[in-house]
């Protein structure tokens, strides 16, 4: 798996066009990006710039229309069949007829884990996202934030080395978000996973990432890749340091550049 | 035992008393027959049932049977217990119909589903148009009860002497406030309630023998029914799976049917047959003179 | 091409080709008896080459047509079809299926345009059913009194257009249309009235549900008794049949507007009428059309049933019931065909209007929000 | 309580209107009867009572229907051929068998439609067309045809029930099996789940509410199918046969009693499906 | 309308309890708050603390169960019937069967504006939110951000003096949000409207408001009312000033105090 290269995701001249009735929609064009093992990469950019599309392409949920894309050195399809990644969608997408533990167990059932192993993994990942005690509840009995955490647990349960997260904390208020951000950082530090993370929040992107990919729309392009100079160890109040603010300002400039207000929204 | 299925033309009622009594009294068993009697109804065409193999023998009116014969169901009359027709048209006084000449411009209720031929043959004979043209009558597809008369929806309606006429009597109608046209009395009767089988089965002597025994036992049933009308009515009520048959009404029906059936002679009267065929051809209900549409082989053998 | 066959397509191809091969072998003793059939068997057998050579799906379509043609051309006038000809039926059907299977795949892959070709598939399916019907009824000598062949029905249809048209006018124009309009409008109005009063709603809805479970067959003789023999009683049955679906659907539809949409009206201090006209009726549109579609099939059936219980001597139901009595089964099927065509067309028209009126609904605009 | 009061009020209103209507509709015939019997000047109250007690009324009064229902159910042995409980059972058995057939067929077709492009495109128009065929017209011929291949009794009736009841099930199940959102299907794709797994773990449970909604419609229609079939298959009895014999004998009270029993049966069947839905919902943790 | 007092909204000992099967839910308890004419008041607090409920009570969409609440010195019901306010819901709630311009015209139709006046107002408000050119589009043909802006235009079209806005910019990305924030400030400065504004974002609250109401849940209470010392004129980069950061820190502290993480989420 970690063959000749440490690149987990490698995109070169990647393009992805959606056919549409009145002219095609170019969602991604000429994207070149390498994500190495153990990196925490944030994607930021205005709505519709192709962040989700790029994550979906990595996950083999969309087919690139040009260029090449490899995941763990293989095609995305083979990587998917190897169950190389866990995906956290923008919405929690829990199945309402399953309890929280059954929801978390879903990928394990499908991948054929034994039932003892399953129970153990469910217990462990639920504890990790602070949901112990809610195993037997149904999704609608939990708040939005708890649901989102359950969906993260589900993606973590089978220990894929690559985590793809599409605005997982979009619906949460600032305090809860802060808490989950630092939990996620701890998890990442502990497990050495590679994480691709989509967000709209500049502070969040700066706080979490080792690398920030700024994108711009029409067509979706990578306009800037900012490598963070922050240490790996990040207390919450790092966000008031000048270094942090400086990176944030750079991200903001990058964003604004690709953002001609009138046409984007 | 030989198994035979008899498809009746209508729901279980004393119109078929002979067959029901024969079954109930064990006359068929005595002839070593295992008979299944299937009730009919307004949506069941016995001619179609026998064509589909759902019955061996059917009770049918000759006009419908001959018409079916032309349509490709080779039916053959093997016996004709009913000698006379029970069909009438009745007109209440309010309709101001007292004779055939009063018909033009009136609305007449007629039963369809293969029961309409006698009426059209009659009108054809009288020269009264039924197609809605000038000087003709308006025809309604009548429901199988006397409501259209009670409701005044038709000036005259069709009845059977042994059934709907009884309902009319119950409702307070009678000869004094009705004009009655009896098809038999007018000489317009077309043979009703004969027994028909498929032609090809008659080449099998074993079948013919079974039919013979069937007719013999049935006639014994008829004789018994007419001799014991009260018991016959009760048997009919008991054998009705729908539970709709009323004893008093069935008793009335046995009485009336006895005027139409000759239990001593199941044979078809050729003169009546010829008249029926002529009436049907006159009115183009059938196009060609039927060949071999009846056989006396069965009734000859019963004696 | 051969690489792109799915499992199902592979099986179908094997069945079609295999039947062709077997049929070819079985035809040899009587060679020359049915040349068209022989050609069909031969080419079918050849189609097995698709395992090694490319074989366009258009060829499968051509073979399906050829098979159907050969079958119908060699149907015996009397008696049973030769046994090995049934292989041709299976092969021809397998080719048809294979053709639509591959055609659908081509449309999905974007190799063929959706419009036009999309219509071809249901048409082929229908034609396949009719060919099977024709071949089975005539090939197995099914009595025309039980089930006539489509060709016989078509012949009768063509010869009886006058009668069929008169029956159509009596049943559809005079009974169905007025009954449908009255039933639907009444259901809509009562729903609006009921919706205003929670008390009425709580009282009427359970009873409405009970009534809609009433078997309408039972209503028909009563309506004939009440409203007479002509179209009025048929229209009354149609009214009774269409009223409750419309009532139930509209009541549900009037509740379809979300709380927030209603709150918005509330913030404008909108009157009841304004809220009804600008929010709740438009929001109920999809539900109302649902009822209109259900009712379009119910209405015709109701009118036909009612004609079984007494009519003037015209009308589709009358013709069907007397037709069965007279064993004019081909005419009965011609009437049934008229009913099916009229019913489908009625449904189609309502569905088209729905597309226009509720263009905004996700189910119409294609699901993208 | 606050559910019963409105229903009761409306019910009372209906019964009042019904009584009034039966006076109005039966009056002409009653007048003629009285004239014929030379009864002049019948007091109004007595006349009203007469219109409510006719033998074959145009519109039977509520208590006549209720009395007939009582006499034909509670007052009789359930095995009696006059008992509506007996006939109800016969119709019910055909209904249930037809409903089972119809639901299975509907589900199978829906599964074919969502999994197979060709089926998706070819079946739906014909399924809709099938419902525009007047089954009442086809039923007699179908009964004869099935008889020709040796099927009699329960099965032809059940097949006609099936013909009517599969339709709401296909329509509902196609919707239901397609109801999972793209994201939920994508989730399974990220696990590389097989179509079989996607069906059982996602599509099938997601379709449950649709299945039950369809089954509620389907079972009521099944009953109608069984009754239609009995009109063409009078052997053996059943509520349809009672309707028919009531109609051919002009026994209006009998028609109405059979109708009400049929509607009551439908209501009970729908309630039973609703009950089953409730239980499944509980097992599936659906919010109360 | 502007009678003896300048208080637009006045709540004293306000309580609002939702009856529920298993124990009532106290959404608001003992809320005392006065909002004066021309103020810009932000409400901030964790999910479920009663922000929406309070706004809905002002709008007469919920009935308080205790205490008093007046709007323009009248009962909320009379104020609603006077069409005293415009409400922007959390979701855009556009009617999908109406074009954008017809959606914006909806309140005008209901309030009986003449058709020429209507057209003029629609044109003007759509221009204000930068949606000129999209008049004839249907809501589902617009992005979420554009929909949200259309719903703001709708609330502005009839010029109510009081604007109630429930997280109007929740679904937008940072850049668009910044833009709309400054537009809103300009509008407010120009028109002297009174604005009640719910948000989850601390910077947004601080940037916009003259007064920040911090709430805490279970039961919904007002835990802090912070009067902004920022000037009325606020360029975007005011957000990097120490004064701004200080107010933000105070808001964050207030929020955190009412926020016992485990039980809320
Ligand atoms: N299935 C699809 N068909 C057609 N166009 C699509 C499809 N999915 C996305 N697009 C278009 O592709 C572009 C990129 O979309 P994408 O969802 O990747 O944006 P995003 O950066 O994730 O935006 P957001 O921040 O709003 O989630 C958009 O213009 C969108 O309209
Ligand atoms: N209609 C209702 N019935 C019962 N409880 C309700 C209702 N509406 C709101 N609540 C409850 O009242 C409390 C306050 O809800 P409210 O919507 O005002 O919160 P909020 O502060 O707007 O939260 P958010 O930030 O998530 O929008 C919550 O606990 C909620 O569950
Ligand atoms: C000629 C022809 N034959 C078969 C099918 C496919 N098909 C139609 S119905 C059915 C059964 C259940 O789906 C199947 C497989 C077709 N489309 N056209
Ligand atoms: Mg996205
Ligand atoms: Mg809220």
Would you kindly provide a written description of the structure presented here, covering whatever features stand out?
The complex is a heteropentamer, with 2 copies of chain A (265 residues), 1 copy of chain B (303 residues), 1 copy of chain C (369 residues) and 1 copy of chain D (288 residues). In chain A, strand 6, helix 6 (174-191) and strand 7 (194-198) form a beta-alpha-beta unit. Helix content of chain A is 37%, strand content 23%. The radius of gyration of chain A is 18 Å and the shape is globular. Chain A is built from 9 helices and 9 strands. Chain A has 2 domains: 3-84 and 162-260, Rossmann fold (3-Layer(aba) Sandwich); 92-159, no CATH class. The mean pLDDT of chain C is 86. In chain C, 50% of the residues are buried. In chain C, helix 7 packs across helix 13. Chain C contains 15 helices and 1 strand. Chain D is mainly alpha-helical. Chain D has 2 domains: 4-59; 84-283, MetI-like (MetI-like fold), CATH 1.10.3720. In chain D, helix 4 (84-115) crosses helix 7 (154-177). At the C-D interface, helix 4, helix 5, helix 8, helix 9 and helix 12 of C face helix 1, helix 5, helix 6, helix 9 and helix 10 of D. Bound molecules: adenosine-5'-triphosphate (2 copies), the ligand Cc1ncc(C[n+]2csc(CCO)c2C)c(N)n1 and magnesium ion (2 copies). One adenosine-5'-triphosphate (ATP) is lined by residues 18, 20, 25, 27, 45, 47-53, 220 of chain E. Chain C: InterPro entries: MetI-like, MetI-like_sf.
Tally of strands of chain D: 0
End-to-end span of chain D in angstroms?
Answer: 20 Å
Number of helices of chain C: 15
Overall mean pLDDT of chain C stands at 86
Largest sheet: number of strands, sense, barrel closure of chain D: none
GO biological process, one term (chain D): transmembrane transport
Organism (chain D): Devosia aurantiaca
Subcellular location (chain D): Cell membrane
Protein name (chain D): ABC transporter permease
Write the layout of secondary structure elements.
The complex is a heteropentamer, with 2 copies of chain A (265 residues), 1 copy of chain B (303 residues), 1 copy of chain C (369 residues) and 1 copy of chain D (288 residues).
Chain A: E1 7-18, E2 25-36, E3 40-44, H1 51-58, E4 66-71, H2 76-81, E5 85-88, H3 100-110, H4 115-128, H5 144-156, E6 162-166, H6 174-191, E7 194-198, H7 202-208, E8 211-216, E9 221-227, H8 242-257, H9 261-264
Parallel strand pairs in A: 3-7, 3-8, 5-6, 6-7
Antiparallel strand pairs in A: 1-2, 1-4, 8-9
Chain C: H1 7-27, H2 35-46, H3 57-73, H4 85-108, H5 117-139, H6 150-159, H7 161-196, H8 198-212, H9 216-227, H10 231-254, H11 259-267, H12 272-307, E1 311-312, H13 316-325, H14 329-357, H15 362-365
Chain D: H1 4-36, H2 44-51, H3 62-72, H4 84-115, H5 117-132, H6 135-148, H7 154-177, H8 182-190, H9 195-231, H10 239-248, H11 252-283
Helix pairs in contact in D: 1-2, 3-11, 4-5, 4-7, 4-9, 4-10, 6-7, 6-9, 7-9, 9-10, 9-11, 10-11
The structure holds adenosine-5'-triphosphate (2 copies), the ligand Cc1ncc(C[n+]2csc(CCO)c2C)c(N)n1 and magnesium ion (MG) (2 copies).
The site of one magnesium ion (MG) has 4 residues of chain E, from α1.
Pfam families (chains A, E): ABC_tran
Keywords (chains A, E): ATP-binding, Nucleotide-binding, Transport
GO molecular function, one term (chains A, E): ATP hydrolysis activity
């Amino acid at each position: 798996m970690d063959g000749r290269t440490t690149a987990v995701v490698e995109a070169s001249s990647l393009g992805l066009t959606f056919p549409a009735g009145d002219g095609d929609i170019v969602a991604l064009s000429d994207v070149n990006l390498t994500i190495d093992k153990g990196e925490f990469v944030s994607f930021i950019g205005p709505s519709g710039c192709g962040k989700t599309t790029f994550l979906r392409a990595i996950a083999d949920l969309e087919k690139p229309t040009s260029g090449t894309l490899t995941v763990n050195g293989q095609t995305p399809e083979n990587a998917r069949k190897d169950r190389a990644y866990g995906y956290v969608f923008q919405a929690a997408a829990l199945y309402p007829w399953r309890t929280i533990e059954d929801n978390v167990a879903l990928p394990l059932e499908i991948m054929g884990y034994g039932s003892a192993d399953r129970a153990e993994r469910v217990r462990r990942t639920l504890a990790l996202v602070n949901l112990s005690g809610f195993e037997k509840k149904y999704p609608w009995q939990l708040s939005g934030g708890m649901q989102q955490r359950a969906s993260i647990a589900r993606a973590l349960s089978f220990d894929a080395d690559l985590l793809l997260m599409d605005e997982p904390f979009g619906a949460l208020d600032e305090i809860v978000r802060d808490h989950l951000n630092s939990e996620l950082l701890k998890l990442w530090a502990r497990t050495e996973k590679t994480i691709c993370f989509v967000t709209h929040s500049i502070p969040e992107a700066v706080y979490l990432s080792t690398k920030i990919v700024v994108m711009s729309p029409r067509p979706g392009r990578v306009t800037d890749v900012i490598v963070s100079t922050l240490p790996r160890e990040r207390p919450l109040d790092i966000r008031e340091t000048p270094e942090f603010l400086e990176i944030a300002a750079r991200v903001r400039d990058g964003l604004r550049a690709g953002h001609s207000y009138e046409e984007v929204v | 035992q030989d198994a035979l299925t008899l498809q009746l033309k209508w729901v279980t009622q004393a119109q078929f008393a002979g067959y029901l009594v024969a079954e109930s009294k064990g006359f068929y068993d005595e002839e070593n027959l295992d008979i299944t009697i299937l009730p009919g109804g307004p949506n069941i065409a016995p001619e179609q049932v026998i064509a589909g193999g759902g019955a061996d023998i059917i009770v049918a009116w000759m006009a419908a049977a001959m018409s079916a014969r032309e349509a490709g169901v080779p039916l053959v009359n093997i016996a004709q217990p009913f000698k006379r027709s029970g069909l009438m048209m009745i007109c209440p006084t309010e309709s101001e119909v007292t004779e055939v000449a009063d018909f033009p411009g009136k609305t007449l209720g007629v039963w369809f589903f293969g029961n309409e031929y006698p009426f059209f043959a009659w009108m054809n004979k009288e020269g009264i148009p039924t197609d809605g043209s000038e000087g003709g009558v308006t025809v309604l597809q009548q429901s199988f009860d006397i409501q259209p008369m009670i409701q005044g929806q038709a000036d005259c309606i069709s009845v059977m002497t042994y059934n709907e006429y009884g309902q009319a009597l119950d409702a307070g109608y009678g000869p004094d406030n009705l004009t009655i046209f009896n098809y038999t009395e007018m000489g317009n009767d077309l043979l009703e309630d004969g027994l028909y089988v498929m032609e090809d089965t008659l080449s099998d002597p074993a079948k013919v023998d079974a039919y013979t025994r069937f007719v013999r036992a049935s006639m014994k049933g008829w004789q018994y029914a007419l001799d014991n009308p009260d018991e016959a009515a009760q048997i009919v009520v008991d054998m009705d799976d729908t539970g709709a048959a009323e004893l008093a009404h069935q008793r009335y029906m046995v009485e009336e049917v006895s005027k139409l059936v000759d239990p001593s002679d199941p044979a078809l009267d050729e003169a009546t047959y010829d008249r029926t065929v002529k009436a049907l051809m006159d009115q183009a209900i059938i196009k060609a003179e039927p060949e071999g549409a009846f056989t006396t082989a069965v009734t000859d053998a019963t004696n | 091409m051969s690489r792109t066959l799915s499992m199902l397509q592979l099986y179908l191809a094997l069945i079609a080709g295999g039947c062709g091969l077997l049929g070819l072998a079985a035809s040899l003793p009587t060679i020359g008896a049915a040349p068209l059939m022989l050609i069909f068997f031969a080419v079918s057998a050849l189609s097995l080459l698709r395992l090694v050579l490319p074989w366009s799906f258009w060829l499968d379509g051509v073979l399906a047509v050829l098979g159907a043609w050969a079958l119908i051309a060699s149907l015996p006038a009397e008696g049973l079809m030769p046994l090995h000809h049934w292989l041709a039926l299976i092969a021809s059907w397998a080719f048809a299926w294979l053709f639509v299977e591959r055609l659908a795949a081509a449309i999905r892959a974007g190799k063929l345009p959706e419009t036009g070709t999309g219509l071809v598939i249901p048409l082929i399916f229908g034609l396949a059913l009719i060919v099977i019907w024709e071949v089975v009824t005539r090939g197995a000598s099914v009595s025309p009194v039980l089930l006539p062949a489509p060709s016989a029905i078509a012949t009768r249809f063509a010869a009886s257009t006058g009668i069929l048209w008169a029956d159509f006018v009596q049943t559809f124009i005079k009974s169905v249309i007025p009954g449908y309009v009255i039933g639907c409008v009444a259901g809509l109005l009562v729903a609006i009235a009921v919706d205003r009063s929670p008390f009425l709603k709580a009282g009427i809805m359970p009873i409405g549900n009970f009534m809609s479970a009433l078997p309408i067959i039972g209503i028909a003789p009563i309506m004939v008794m009440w409203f007479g023999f002509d179209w009025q009683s048929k229209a009354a049955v149609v009214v009774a049949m269409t009223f409750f679906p419309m009532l139930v659907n509209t009541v549900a539809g009037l509740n379809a507007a979300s709380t927030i949409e209603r709150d918005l009206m509330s913030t404008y201090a909108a009157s009841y009428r304004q809220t009804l006209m600008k929010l709740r009726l438009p929001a109920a549109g999809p539900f109302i059309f649902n009822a209109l579609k259900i009712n379009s099939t119910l209405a015709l059936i109701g009118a036909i049933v009612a004609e079984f219980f007494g009519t003037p001597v015209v009308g589709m139901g009358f013709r069907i019931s007397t037709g069965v009595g007279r064993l004019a089964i081909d005419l009965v099927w011609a009437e049934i065909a008229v009913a099916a065509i009229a019913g489908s067309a009625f449904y189609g028209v309502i569905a088209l209007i729905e597309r226009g009126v509720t263009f905004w609904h996700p189910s119409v605009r294609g699901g993208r929000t | 309580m606050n559910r019963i009061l409105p229903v009761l009020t409306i019910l009372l209103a209906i019964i009042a209107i019904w009584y009034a209507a039966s006076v109005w509709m039966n009056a002409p015939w009653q007048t003629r009867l009285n004239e014929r019997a030379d009864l002049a000047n019948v007091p109004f109250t007595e006349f009203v009572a007469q219109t409510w007690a006719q033998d074959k009324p145009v519109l039977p009064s509520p208590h006549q229907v209720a009395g007939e229902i009582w006499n034909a159910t509670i007052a009789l042995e359930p095995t009696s051929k006059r008992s509506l409980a007996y006939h109800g059972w016969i119709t019910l058995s055909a209904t249930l068998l037809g409903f089972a057939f119809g639901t299975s067929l509907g589900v199978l077709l829906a599964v074919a439609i969502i999994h197979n492009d060709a089926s998706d495109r070819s079946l739906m128009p014909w399924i809709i067309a099938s419902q525009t065929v007047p089954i009442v017209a086809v039923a007699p011929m179908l009964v004869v045809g099935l008889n020709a291949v040796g099927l009699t009794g329960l099965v032809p009736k059940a097949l006609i029930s099936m013909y009517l009841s599969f339709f709401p099930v296909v329509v509902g199940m196609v919707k239901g099996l397609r109801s999972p959102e793209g994201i939920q299907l994508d989730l399974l794709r990220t696990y590389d789940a097989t179509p079989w797994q996607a069906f059982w773990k996602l599509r099938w449970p997601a379709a449950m509410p649709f299945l039950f909604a369809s089954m509620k419609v389907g079972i009521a229609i099944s009953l109608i199918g069984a009754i239609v079939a009995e009109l063409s298959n009078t052997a053996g009895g059943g509520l349809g046969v009672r309707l028919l014999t009531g109609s051919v004998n002009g026994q209006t009270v009998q028609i109405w009693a059979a109708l009400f029993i049929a509607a009551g049966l439908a209501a009970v069947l729908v309630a039973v499906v609703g009950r089953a839905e409730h239980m499944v919902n509980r097992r599936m943790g659906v919010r109360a």
